[in-house]
Specification:
Blueprint lengths: L1 E4 L6 H10 L4 E4 L2 H5 L3 E4 L5 H11 L1 H8 L5 E4 L1 H5 L1 E4 L5 E2 L4 E7 L7 E6 L16 E6 L1 E5 L4 E6 L3 E8 L2 E4 L7 H13 L9
Parallel strand pairs: 1-2, 1-3, 3-4, 4-13, 5-7
Antiparallel strand pairs: 5-6, 7-10, 8-9, 11-12, 12-13
Length: 203
């Protein structure tokens, strides 16, 4: 069972449908008792970083997610990936979960938001098993992650090269939307469903 964290924001139903299409089971919930029964968690996200973090904190899902990372794979999608970082500069500087050191910053060139299909390169994680270098995924975002090289598992070029996938311990994040990225996106979700928890996954 995969738990999709419901904190009042995010494209949760499409993620659930993608998991079910792959033969998995997924529950959308903010109930920690129900989430305790899930072997993996997905942190989706669409919208404002500050509002999303406020909702996570109000519900206690911020601390809950960090605690579960000790022994549970967690996948952050789009804004959910940015939540994993130390902070974001969206609408002022706001603290994230601090799971992966880094900051979400706004694009300064090109059409904003960055929207559409773009390639991911430098893929180096079991999350991308069976996916060819440069494969295209679907993006919709105005902010992107700046993170240390050791935590970056995929990059994308859009007027600058940015981290489009990050990972540390049991925390994984993708800036693109796998649930909207066709066969390649489904493969990412399939790979996530197969991941084993890292020992000592706390950060």
């Amino acid at each position: 069972m995969i738990g999709i964290l419901d904190y009042g924001m995010g494209n949760v139903r499409s993620v659930q449908k993608a998991i079910e299409f792959l033969g998995g089971q997924a529950v959308i919930t903010s109930d920690m008792g129900a989430l305790d029964k899930c072997e993996r968690l997905i942190l989706p996200g669409v919208g404002s970083f500050a509002a999303g973090m406020e909702n996570l904190q109000r519900s206690g899902l911020d601390a809950y997610t960090k605690a579960r990372l000790k022994n549970t794979p967690v996948l952050g999608i789009c804004l959910g990936m940015q939540f994993l970082l130390s902070e974001s500069e969206e609408e002022g500087v706001h603290a994230g979960l601090g799971v992966i050191p880094g900051r979400a910053v706004r694009f300064t060139q090109g059409k904003i938001p960055h929207m559409g299909w773009n390639g991911v390169e430098g893929m180096r994680s079991p999350l991308f098993e069976g996916i060819a270098e440069g494969t295209q995924f679907y993006f919709v975002h105005s902010y992107y992650a700046q993170a240390g090289d050791k935590d970056v598992i995929g990059t994308t070029e859009y007027y600058c090269r940015f981290a489009s996938a990050i990972a540390r311990g049991n925390a994984y994040g993708v800036q693109f939307h796998p649930e909207k990225s066709g066969a390649a996106g489904l493969q990412v979700l399939r790979n996530f469903m197969r991941l084993n928890a890292a020992k000592g996954g706390a950060v």
